[in-house]
Amino acid sequence: MLVAPSILSADFGHLARDVRAICDGGCDLVHVDVMDGHFVPNMTIGPVVVEAVAQAATKPLDIHLMVENNSFFVDLYAPLKPEYISFHIEEEKHPHRLIQKIRALGIRPAITLNPHTPPEAIEFLLEELDMVLLMSVNPGFGGQSFIPSVLERAVRLKELIEGRNPKCLIEVDGGVNDKNIHMLYESGVDVVVAGSYVYKHPHGIKTAINSLKIGS
Ligand code: DX5
Ligand code: ZN
Hints:
The chain has 216 residues and is α/β, with parallel strands linked by helices. It has helices at residues 15-24, 47-56, 70-77, 95-104, 150-164, 181-186, 196-199, 205-212; strands spanning 2-5, 30-35, 61-66, 84-88, 108-113, 131-135, 169-173, 191-194. It is 33% helix and 19% strand.
């Protein structure tokens, strides 16, 4: 299991320190939640701050766009050379075109599905994707409760992926902790995002990350 801590739960007054802490703690990706106050009822950080995150990080960035006008935001973040950019299928009229644009910029394209969106919605895009992000909470805020139906969606997505693009990873985001990590692993999930669990763990960030790195 790869672990991508979300910096949404970091102390933004000490952001560089908190980004270094997850990298030193053994994370695989640094998950960056970009919210615009339109697609979701919350706002986070823009490219100036994400540039500071990129400078502090020693692990690749995983940028999760929760925005309207995805293409505009892809242009803003592409110069930071993230490993992945994911966009929500619910907010994109031309996902195939946007995938091609992201790949042409040298970034791995990923698509995110809200809790109500079935994996079949992106069946005919799977061959073009490097990762699919399944939301296990409604996007917009950290610290929410895990929605268990993501497990069934992961199993269905895995079946589609095995038929069409076995290299495509499955990532799950929201409410992930040491109670649900084994079920996620058994459902075929490759990458987990965890914000509050990692940053607020009573025994520290490294212990939290290690407890999620099962099977690896
Ligand atoms: C929610 C974000 C998540 C969130 C995860 O919109 O996409 O990445 O920060 O936080 P936890 O792990 O606290 O649910
Ligand atoms: Zn996220």
